[in-house]
Amino acid sequence: MRMVLSEGGFPEIVKLDKGMNQDLDLAALMALSQWTFEPALKDGVPISVLINVEFRFSLY
Amino acid sequence: MRLRMLVLILGIFGFAGQCFSENRQIEEQLRESFTDKLVYLRNPYVSTPLQFDRMGNLLGKSQTAPWTMNGLILVKDIQVRKNRLKLDGTRVILVLGNTSNDQLTPLITGKSMHVIVEDITEATIQQQIYEILSRIFTTDKVEDRFTNYWKPLIDLNMPLDEIKKSRPDGLIGTLDGGRPSIASCRVSCVLPNRCTRPIRSTLRTHERRGAEESHT
Q1: ipTM over 0.85
Q2: Angle of helix B2-34 relative to helix B126-136, nearest 10 degrees?
Q3: pLDDT tens digit sequence for B160-184
Q4: Separation between Cα atoms, residue B53 and residue B116, nearest integer Å
Q5: Which residue from B181, B192, B202 is facing A48, i.e. has the nearest CB?
Q6: What is the model's pTM?
């Protein structure tokens, strides 16, 4: 996934990068939508940033 | 005396019945207008339930978060009871697809959302209810709103390394209100975000069984 985080550390723009399976993509997106982050800082000021997020699924 | 009492009782029942009937009528019309439709909150509050007064002011407190992840609601039902309007729905998030044209996809999260508007008096007519709702929600076209909300300067499908090369200033686009967004590539001046709220997998056992270990 690729996403733009807001200055407050909330996911703002989410982009599916390399999807694998519709259900897994959906689960990842659901999780992602609820994440919060510490804001990124530029010169000490919170700023919106683009980051890559990788999800790993394990078989049980 | 008994006759007067009887007339009074019948009058009260008649008035109550009329109000009930009006409420039902308004309710049906609201359902017709909103059920299974996307609405979005003017202020994307995170909490649920959300309570508003008839002026559209939030009662209580709630944190706000980006509109794309918290603003949209798929309406499931609307009820008008006594002085209260209750809207039940599901949160919807907006996601860009992985195709080159970055198609915008509303995704239903299954997360319940309830909005309550207090002080809807029995005398409130349908037009007034629509006005009250328009203070809380908008029903503008999502695609149009998104186009104005996010203005990318790069192709988001590009590898991060290429983005760095093509945008030495790191600027990748602007968000609502002209807020700049940068690629988190200049580690010397940008402290990368640290996730503060990881979340457990929402997959059920049978879904896990079918999944192969991979990256998304």
Answers
A1: yes
A2: 40
A3: 788 878 888 889 999 988 999 988 6
A4: 9
A5: B181
A6: 0.76
